[in-house]
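Q: What changes when norvaline is included in the input?
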Amino acid sequence: MGASLRHLLEIDDLSASEVRRILDLSELSDPPEVLAGTGVVLLFEKPSARTRTSVEMATVQLGGHPVTLRNEEVGIDTRECAEDLARLFSGYGAAIGARVFEHHKVERLAASSSVPVINLLSDEAHPVQALADLLTIRQSLGRLDGVSVSYVGDANNVARSLGIGCSLLGMQFRVSSPPGFGFRPADLERIASGGGTVEVFEDALSAVSGADVIYTDAWYSMGQEAEQVERRAVFADWRVDEALLAAADPGAVFMHCLPAHRGDEATDGVLDGPQSRIWTQAHNRMHTARGLLLFLLDGED
Ligand code: CP
Ligand code: NVA
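A: The predicted holo structure follows.
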């Protein structure tokens, strides 16, 4: 356990050098078993394929045991308040991970926990995704400094953490969303405060022109399924297809946090094409989960 208790609720809870350190730790070939004899407790209010599996596997790779609980079992704030659950699980595991609807819930867990709390996705943020995204960009392009990342689509949790992470590492972040689905001014300020650049474009084509990375995510996130039909119509001009990708730099890579709604936010040709890095990105979720746990638990700060 490090000297000071750290949580990861949003990517800028870390400094730029700490993010770089986590990316380096993620690529360690023989990580120390910092979780031997203990483990992590993972709470899920929403479904997950990548997050649950990647954190569970990372825990095992560090010698630990993961315990995963769906909200139906623990009833956060219905059976027992978030604060009491944090106090409880602090005594069982070396870290707590939580995927929640309201971001405030991970803040409440962190405030009452005596072990690190990791946000595994809230309606506001997806910092563990951003770590995997940054590692994937570094591996694909060989650098992060000055790289231009164009996010096309819904300015959601994934986009926000990506933007904040890119800016923190001195990258250029560009974004284009349909009217009414873009970032709030406070989000743009938080992204810009990282030190990189952030530019908002009215149309997707302008946003991706000459960019190094094209990124998109679902047009409707978990909890927004009822808006599916309406959102499909609104977002149609923000689909990443072969023509849009061709407007990026010829060496550009395509990224998506997954799960993909194939044919909506991106075509099969893009998702499965030569510029796509979606599977490297998904697999990097496990490597960066391991790097993050090492950083949080091994005094790597
Ligand atoms: N990208 C991501 O977090 O995927 P899951 O929802 O499957 O965990
Ligand atoms: N924006 C998506 C990301 C899923 C990993 C959601 O919140 O459902």
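Observations recorded in class: The pocket of norvaline (ligand 2) is lined by residues 121, 156-158, 217-218, 221-222, 257 (CB under 6 Å).
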